[in-house]
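Support request from a user on the community tier.

User writes: "When I paste my structure tokens into the form, the page sometimes reloads and wipes my input. The last time it worked, I copied everything first. Here is what I submitted, just in case something in the input itself triggers the reload:"
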């Protein structure tokens, strides 16, 4: 399942240094963090609306957009998507209540 994440990560890294007119992703990187975060916010709202509407195909489509733009944000910030996956793995098997309580320390 993570093969596509690795492939997408490599492509996003390559596009970070490409000319802005050569790709959508490159244009986002060149516009800066605020533009990237705006897209993450837009895609988040669209995902919420799709979920409220309950149409499975729309939920999948919008969630893919949200994940994609979140990955763009991660790469922009110098964070490997694997770091997020590692954090999820670290939390796996831990009660959500326990995990939240551990953050307060």
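"...and here is what came back when it finally went through:"
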């Amino acid at each position: 399942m993570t093969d596509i994440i690795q492939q997408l990560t490599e492509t996003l890294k390559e596009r970070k240094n490409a000319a802005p007119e050569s790709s959508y992703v490159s244009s986002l990187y060149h516009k800066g963090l605020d533009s990237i975060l705006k897209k993450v916010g837009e895609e988040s709202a669209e995902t919420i609306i799709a979920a409220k509407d309950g149409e499975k195909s729309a939920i999948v489509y919008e969630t893919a957009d949200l994940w994609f733009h979140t990955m763009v944000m991660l790469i922009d910030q110098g964070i490997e998507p694997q770091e997020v996956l590692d954090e999820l793995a670290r939390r796996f098997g831990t009660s959500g209540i326990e995990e939240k309580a551990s953050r307060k320390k």
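Agent notes: The reload is a front-end session timeout and is unrelated to the input. Residues 33-53 form the longest helix (21 residues). The mean pLDDT is 93. Escalated to web team.
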